[in-house]
Structures are given as structure tokens and as C-alpha cells.
Write a structure and sequence with these properties.
Belongs to the D-lyxose ketol-isomerase family. It comes from Neoasaia chiangmaiensis. Its cofactor is Mn(2+). Its EC number is 5.3.1.15. It is built from four helices and 13 strands. By secondary structure, it is α+β, with helices and mostly antiparallel strands. The mean pLDDT is about 95. The longest helix has 17 residues. Strand 7 and strand 8 form a beta hairpin. The strands form three sheets. Strands 1-2-3-12-5-10-7-8 form an eight-stranded antiparallel beta sheet. The chain has one domain: Jelly Rolls, CATH 2.60.120.10.
Length: about 240
């Protein structure tokens, strides 16, 4: 994936969120230079992988298979001191762009249409072999039960949300002809290193062709605290 695609996707997301009246926290706008001065006071952002997350899942076709997300809050199973058991993300949903079909072993999530066009969510249960099941099942859309056959699609209009239990294979994307959509994900703790089960070989984080300078760090790219920033953090804490 090219760095130019990542830069452009982040700036499109910023523009779209702003146009839809969705505000981002200040660290969404921290540049590469800004991060040089961030000490341990920003460790939660680093350690819980908050911030921008742009990926083509190693597929090399970002317009079809890809995601531009911003993680607002999360906990961590790998680092002590971060006790949140929940997570929240914003997702830019261009028409037709989707993630690979996947499920989560433990995470339960709600996908919510926050603004824009419609979102199509395709759902199937996973069987004991981690493949698509023929099982019929139920899900809830805004608290109302729906009966589902394998591969059925739920259309979410702005304001609607669907609850996706663990071990439910899902893909979702912006519906053609309805424009850019912003979805939200509210979930139990998100562990992207261990809890994603893709049905086809996929890389959660991309290999990047640095065809232009990085403007913003992705959530897995944050630099370690510099010595100067660490000293500044200690000095401020001592006041």
C-alpha cells in the first residue's frame, strides 16, 4: 500500500467527519513533528493503538478491500494500567469498499451508521472449523430481533445499528449510489493482534511503499518517547 493512499485517506476522513458534524479529539491532528514532543503522557494512545488505522489488508486493491478507521478509545490485554473493557471507532465507508470476511473470537460489536449514505452488512455464523456455517440465526437491529439465513444482508440507514456477536462472519460497505458514509463501532475490548479470524489470508496491517512523506502516524507506527520528551514529562510531573 502506498503512503500517498494513506495520507489521502486520512485527509478525506477528516474532511468527511467535519462535514457531517463529527468532531475528532486533538490527537487526530498530531503530525509527525508534533509526536517528537510527546512524552509518556501520551502512552495510552501508543499502547492501546488509538488513532488512525488505514489498511488494504495486504490485498493491494484498497478501493475494494480496505479500511480507514480512527480508534477513539480502547483497553489493552498486553499492557498493564489500561483497564477499559470497551472500545469505540469511527470508520469511513466509501461505496463498495469493505474489509475481508472475518469474525472475532471474543469481541462483540455494534456497527452503527453515524451519517451519510447507507451501509450494507452481510452476516453468516462461523462453524467449529472456522468456516461459513449453514446455520440460521438471529441478530438484533436497534434492539429488534431479525431472523437471518447465511449470507443475508442488513441495510443500515443513518442512525441504525446492528449488534454482531462473536463468531459471526461479517463484511460491511457503503451502498452504491448513496455516497460516503461514516459508521461507528462500539465494542468490547479490541485486540487486533489476536482476535481477528480472516476466512482468506490477510494482513491486518499493511506493508507500506513510502512514495511520499508520512503526514500522520498510523496506530501501529508511533515512535518511542524521545529522551528530550521524557525529560520534559518528568519536569512537568514534578511541578
Amino acid at each position: 500500500m502506498k503512503r500517498s493512499q494513506i495520507n489521502a485517506s486520512i485527509e478525506l476522513a477528516m474532511k468527511t467527519f467535519r462535514e457531517y458534524g463529527i468532531s475528532l479529539p486533538g490527537f487526530a491532528y498530531w503530525t509527525v513533528d508534533d509526536w517528537k514532543n510527546k512524552g509518556h503522557e501520551a502512552d495510552e494512545i501508543r499502547d492501546c493503538m488509538l488513532g488512525w488505522d488505514v489498511t488494504d489488508f495486504g490485498q493491494g486493491d484498497f478501493t475494494k478491500i480496505g479500511r480507514t478507521l480512527f480508534t477513539l478509545r480502547n483497553g489493552s490485554l498486553r499492557r498493564s494500567g489500561y483497564d477499559k473493557s470497551y472500545a469505540e471507532k469511527l470508520i469511513l465507508d466509501p461505496e463498495g469498499q469493505r474489509s475481508p470476511a472475518h469474525f472475532h473470537r471474543t469481541k462483540m460489536e455494534d456497527i452503527i451508521n453515524r451519517a451519510g449514505g447507507n451501509i450494507l452488512v452481510q452476516l453468516t455464523k462461523a462453524n467449529a472449523s472456522n468456516e461459513r456455517s449453514n446455520e440460521h440465526f438471529t441478530i438484533k437491529v436497534d434492539g429488534v430481533v431479525r431472523d437471518m439465513a447465511p449470507g443475508d444482508i442488513v441495510r443500515l440507514e443513518p442512525g441504525q445499528g446492528v449488534c454482531i456477536p462473536p463468531r459471526t462472519i461479517h463484511q460491511f460497505w457503503g451502498e452504491d449510489g448513496t455516497g460516503l458514509t461514516v459508521s461507528g463501532e462500539v465494542s468490547s475490548l479490541c485486540d487486533d493482534h489476536a482476535d481477528n479470524c480472516f476466512l482468506e489470508p490477510s494482513a491486518r496491517f499493511p506493508e507500506i511503499d513510502e512514495d511520499e512523506p508520512r503526514r500522520y502516524f498510523l496506530c501501529h507506527e508511533y515512535p518511542a518517547v524521545s529522551q528530550d520528551a521524557a525529560l520534559e514529562t518528568v519536569s512537568v510531573g514534578a511541578l
